[in-house]
Amino acid sequence: QVQLVESGGGLVQAGGSLRLSCAASGRTFSNYAMGWFRQAPGKEREFVATISRIGSSVSYTGSVKGRFTISRDNTKNTVYLQMNSLKPEDTAVYYCAAAGPKGGSYVYTRSHDYDYWGQGTQVTVSS
């Protein structure tokens, strides 16, 4: 099974940048599409970004497009979320997730697509 540990969260001023990392256990990391989700207090968990198994395709929610970049290094069993031009509305707990094969080739944007979740890392953007 896959264990995921997020790091890199913290407090940053609006307009600043953070890079989140998610370290995965196991030797089958490349078999999983990876995603980032976030949840703000009183809000539902929302999709942020996803990347395919070898990084050939990515997808973002509209509110972060052009500001966030998801990437992965399969030699390090690690997925990253580079967050630039941060806004107060980006404040949330950010979760890393792994999706096993589903028998098709499509972009995973639903939380239901993901099988394993990390504990989350807090990102706070001050105004």
Describe this structure in words.
This protein is mainly β and 127 residues long. It contains no helices and eleven strands. Helix content is 0%, strand content 46%. Strands 2, 4, 5, 6, 9, 10 and 11 form a seven-stranded mixed beta sheet that branches. A hairpin with a 4-residue loop joins strand 7 (68-73) and strand 8 (78-83).
Order of helices and strands: EEEEEEEEEEE
The termini sit apart by: 40 Å
**Portion in strands:** over 45%
- Helix and strand content put the structural class at mainly beta
The beta-strand count equals 11
What about the largest sheet? Answer: 7 strands, mixed
Instruction: Report low-confidence residues grouped into runs of 5 or more.
Output: none
Q: Mean of the pLDDT scores?
A: 95
Q: Bin the helical content.
A: under 10%
Give the overall form: globular
Query: What is the radius of gyration?
Result: 14 Å
How many H/I helices?
A: 0
